[in-house]
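Input/output pair, single chain:
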Amino acid sequence: VSVFMMCGGSLVIAMLPTYAQIGALAPALLLLARLFQGLSVGGEYGTSATYMSEVALKGRRGFFASFQYVTLIGGQLFALLVLVILQQLLTTEELKAWGWRIPFVIGALSAVVALYLRRSLEETTTAETRHRKEAGTLRGLWLHKGAFMTVLGFTAGGSLIFYTFTTYMQKYLVNTAGMHAKTASNVMTAALFVYMLMQPAFGALSDRIGRRRSMLFFGFFATIGTVPLLHALKDVTSPYAAFGLVVAALAIVSFYTSISGLIKAEMFPPEVRALGVGLSYAVANAIFGGSAEYVALWLKQAGSESTFYWYVTAMCAIAGVVAFLMRDPSKEGYLRHEP
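Output:
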């Protein structure tokens, strides 16, 4: 259902009439299509994080689960590559007139491939787990409210800084650093490719040092590094320097993203694992991650762009404090006792 919702949402956007053709109905239909896609992502994250954590080999769960963000970043990278290709093949006028629809057609077709691949997966949950009365219920999740609030705490900062240095960074390089749009696309394409390759390495590192220590490193380096990095990127003139600074920032974020789904999954028992991971991620991601670009641009328009730097820093500091106070799920979590 979630794959079809994402596919359908992309297809609707690709075929959507313009405002000039149908008036206010156009943005209304766009909003509806985006809501369907949002629901689809919400249904996917918790289940994919849970599934990857459960099929991973014990002792190498960090390495295997890191591929969730390899695919997530890979999707962003593919989207950027499509943009770069379209920028080379089409004029700005053609892009605005009809070229922007092409990526949504590609997205709709890609969802069909995902549906085909999913049919070959084996179920990891057991009938006994699914038939427990608290399975998949908010009442059952409430029994683990401490874990839920912990995940909410570090996901808020993690999602915010992730979107800051991935999705928003291309606009930042253009609007704030004054870089040409095509140059910024090339910089971010290269940086995201390196970022994607980092995930298995940082995931494997978490298998050696523990998930809690990885999160502590994330909280510490993100807290002390966000403001200097964003200030440096604000004044950057060389695309090579911009690439180096963005990669440095993404290396810090990798301490979180490489184990993001796994560390959440390890904190919940199997009967509410997908719900616990999905709901905590959805709430924190929608409030902090999804709003990152809007908050940044609003503060920029208000003439206080640097306030956004400190906002990201504060949320990452909170994530660090939450990590300091929590138990290490790789040593004491529910998955540790599962095959």
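The longest helix spans residues 25-55. The two ends are 29 Å apart (CA to CA).
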